Amino acid sequence: MLIKIVDHVDLQEAYQYLQDPSAGGIDLFVGTVRNYAQGKDVVKLVFEAYAPMALKEMEKLAQAAQQQWPITKLVMLHAVGEKLIGEPVVIIGVASAHRDAAFTACRFLIDELKKTVPIWKKEYYQDNSVWVNAHP
User: Fold this and answer.
1) 91-to-8, 23, 31, 100 alpha-carbon distances in Å
2) 53-76: string of b/e by CB count within 10 Å (b at 16+)?
3) Tally of CB atoms within 10 A around 103
4) What is the average per-residue pLDDT within 61-73?
5) What is the DSSP-derived secondary structure letter of residue 21?
6) If you average pLDDT over residues 59-82, what whole number do you get?
7) Which residue, among 54, 42, 62, 50, has the nearest Cα to 124 in the 3D structure?
8) CA angle, 115 as apex, 126 and 89 as ends, to 5°?
9) 119/57 Cα distance (integer angstroms)
């Protein structure tokens, strides 16, 4: 497993890690900063995390996914700090012998990460800013 909280997510690092001769399917989800939310133009996002707990929760999710699906390799990377429009902020990747397990596990991981991992996002609009993720 490759699980990290980073300043910058590296797509190439994630894909290279996931490559394996036994993996017939690699599913890679990349979450990026979009330019519009809450009916307003977004200027940037700022992410904060309580890293020790975030990593622990990400590892729990990875273990849960590995128990449910035949996963060969797994990547979970999330960026912190200021991110501009178009920048990648989260990468979830799963390699498996078959694509169905890779797709399903990847979807599970990103959905659960957003629900349970203590990472907070502040959206900056042209006219103001607001904290968005108020979970954990």
Assistant:
1) 11, 18, 6, 19
2) ebbebbeebbeebeeebebbbbbb
3) 16
4) 98
5) T
6) 98
7) 42
8) 50
9) 11
Is 98's pLDDT higher than 80? yes
Q: Note the pTM of the prediction, 2 decimals.
A: 0.91
Tell the residue number behind the tokens 């200027």, with chain if given.
43
What the block records as the tokens of 94 is 């799963």
Q: What is the pLDDT of residue 7?
A: 97
pLDDT of residue 126: 84
What's the pLDDT band for 136 if we cut at 50, 70, 90? Answer: very low
Which amino acid is it at 105? Answer: A
Q: In 10 A of CB 4, how many CB atoms?
A: 18
* CA distances to 20, 43, 91, 133 from 119, in Å: 30, 19, 14, 8
Q: How many residues does the chain have?
A: 136
DSSP 41: E
The identity of residue 130, as a single letter, is V
